[in-house]
Amino acid sequence: MSRFFNPKYKDLKPYVPGEQPQDHVYIKLNTNESPFPASPNTLAYAMEEAKRLHLYSDPTCAALVKKGAAYYGVAEEEILFTNGSDEALVFALLTFCKQEEGAVFADITYGFYSVICTFAQVPFTKIPLQEDLSIRPEDFYHLNKMIFLANPNAPTGMTLSVAQIEGILQNNPNQIVVVDEAYVDFGAQTVVPLIHRYENLLVVQTMSKSRSLAGGRLGVIMGNRELIADLNRLKYAHNPYNVNRMTMGAGIGAFEDEGYRKANCQTITSLRESVSKQLREMGFTLTDSHTNFVFAKHPQISGGDLYRELKKRYILVRYFDEPRLTEYVRITIGTSDEMQTLLLQIRDILENGVSV
Ligand SMILES: *Cc1c(COP(=O)(O)O)cnc(C)c1O
Fold first, then answer.
1. d(CA 94, CA 103)
2. What is the mean pLDDT of residues 299-323?
3. Burial 233-254 (b: 16+ CB within 10 A, else e)
């Protein structure tokens, strides 16, 4: 830290992204990216926009907003695109979270929520998940804090029903509830239509996972007109051109190629089911995942040991050195071939033990 570093950031705890080693070609099952390239239109439109990189991008994202609004069934004033959904989460926190109230989320959830709270210098509270790692909705009633809910949750992959989320919305009428639907396309129900019924609801989605655009950085946030207008106040005070030209083109192409997204999601969810079945047969216990990853533990080997052993075999998975999670690994669903290699290697590790 230099002597010029602003002391107000001295307690900042940066997010630690999943590793991206360059020393070897790994089978990457650690950051929940799609194993499939972006769709043909996505790539074609991005390349087309590359020819106009000397011109600023449209700060209103008009063409993309039009596509997105039609896709989600919302008005154009009810949707805002961001530089990845991480930016949507930051905008929401900065716009609506009051210093004296703070924010609240589950103790086991997307790690970025606590990171952005330390950045924005708002206090936060963590609500423990139940023993089976599910969320008890009543634990989120009457908290008088801004609420962040990942649905499906990460890294458990488990879902809340629409009725359970409505319960949380109804019992926090004076607080914004952000529902982060990063994985919704892999088997959960969206609450986007509820933005017309609950004035305190914001829904965040990302193009990173189901639309193969992790490297393009495109997220979206939806809510009633007033909330979106407020978010725009922050956006224009911070980064008016937050979505670059190529990404805007890519996003338009992605919405046009809905069939491609659906087919990929179908492939990934059916592979998730067959991989889950095979892991169970090997003695693993899995959470009920509705995402593009599984969260699994085995009585014979800790999450850390399994992670290290797989890494030696050039397969990357994610493990969490945190209370209640040390037994688990989180494994992204890759291609069919990648999953076969993974299962083969796990079987070998379980049969022959951990090497020294
Ligand atoms: C991946 C992820 C995000 C962030 O995705 P972006 O790439 O920033 O759009 C947000 N929330 C959850 C729960 C995620 O897993």
1. 11
2. 95
3. ebbeeeeeebbbbbbbbbbbbb
Q: Is the dihedral of CA 46, 50, 52, 53 positive or negative?
A: positive
C-beta 154 within 6 A of ligand 1: yes
pLDDT in tens, 263-293: 999 999 999 999 999 999 999 999 999 999 9
Instruction: In whole angstroms, give the CA distance from residue 203 to residue 162.
Output: 13
Q: Is 148 in the pocket of ligand 1 (CB under 6 A)?
A: no
d(C-alpha 340, C-alpha 334), whole Å: 10
Structure confidence at residue 157 as a pLDDT band (50, 70, 90): very high
Cα(171)–Cα(49) distance, rounded to whole angstroms?
45
Ligand 1 pocket residue status of 57, Cβ below 6 Å:
no
Structure confidence at residue 22 as a pLDDT band (50, 70, 90): confident
With H, G, I as helix, E, B as strand and everything else as coil, classify residue 146. Answer: strand
Tell me the pTM. Answer: 0.96
Nearest atom in ligand 1 to 214's CA:
7
DSSP for 264-315, please give it: HHHHHHHHHHHHHHHHHHTT-EE----SSEEEEEBTTB-HHHHHHHHHHTTE
How confident is the model over 194-209, as pLDDT tens digits?
999 999 999 999 999 9
Q: Is the CB of 208 under 6 A from ligand 1?
A: yes
